[in-house]
Amino acid sequence: MSLLAGRLAAFPRTISAVAAVTLIGATFLAVPASAQTGPAKPPAAAAATSTKAETLDQRITALHTALKITPDQESKWTPVATAMRDNSAAMEKLVASKKALTPESMTAVDDLTTYQEFAQAHIDGLKNLTSAFKSLYTSMPADQKKNADQVFQKFGTPAAPTQG
User: Fold this and answer.
1) Share of the chain residues as helix, strand and coil, in percent rounded to the nearest 5
2) Which run of H or of E encompasses 95?
3) What span, in angstroms and rounded, lies between the C-alpha atoms of 159 and 87?
4) How confident is the model over 120-138, as pLDDT tens digits?
């Protein structure tokens, strides 16, 4: 099985995880969690590759709540949510187009080219999201910015068990 075939096999359960990438605006990863090895990932990367069964809209809503978006900030939040939806749709389209490929029909060059296409989609999505989020972030008061910084540091990190 080619490297790409292994990645694509894991994509159906991580489509919503790709949406998390667009949600958190941190680092985009082209490799699903099941194909990753190495040191522990930062919280944003962990969220991006999680296998949570959340929908994109649930993640958007959760971020909206966590960031404490006010009614006055809705006009700056809307482009953030739109960027997240657009990025998710673009990734889903790319995944669907690549699922049609059989591992036996792909050469090593095809595999690398496909990996490059996913990486480029992540980069393009991150640029769009960063631009939209920057506008929202710069409009936030200092305490809300601090909250946003903490949300992004912790997003996707499992809650520590409480001791009682």
Assistant:
1) 75, 0, 25
2) helix 74-99
3) 27
4) 999 999 999 999 999 999 9
